[in-house]
Design brief:
Layout lengths: L18 H14 L4 H6 L5 H13 L4 H7 L6 H12 L3 H8 L3
Length: about 100
């Protein structure tokens, strides 16, 4: 398994991340999951990788659920909330591995 450095220093707060930072984090998350922005549009709204990215970004940035849903091509913003709950409660091996990647 690939080891990753921590994504955020302990002293950084969620409030420090504006949209530009969220865009950089999204780009990094896509690379770590071996995806590109073009693949997001062609994949299902409930794709596991999208849900893990939504979970990761929602918990570490101040961008809105609407922004996340638009960037991840998830449809309505309520899908972000559903994704966060699903990832947090998932026991699926695939999801647990993605969460370790670091997203």
């Amino acid at each position: 398994m690939v080891e990753f450095e921590p994504w955020l220093a302990p002293c950084e707060s969620n409030q420090a991340h504006d949209q530009a930072q969220a865009e950089r984090m999204l780009s990094l998350g896509l690379r770590r999951l071996r995806l590109n922005a073009g693949q997001l549009a062609g994949s299902s709204k409930g794709q596991a990788e999208k849900q893990v990215l939504a979970w990761w970004l929602y918990g570490r940035t101040t961008v809105t659920r609407r922004w996340l849903a638009e960037q991840l091509q998830m449809g309505y913003e309520t899908r972000v909330s559903q994704a966060v709950r699903w990832v947090e409660s998932s026991r699926a091996h695939e999801v647990l591995e993605m969460k370790k990647r670091p997203v």
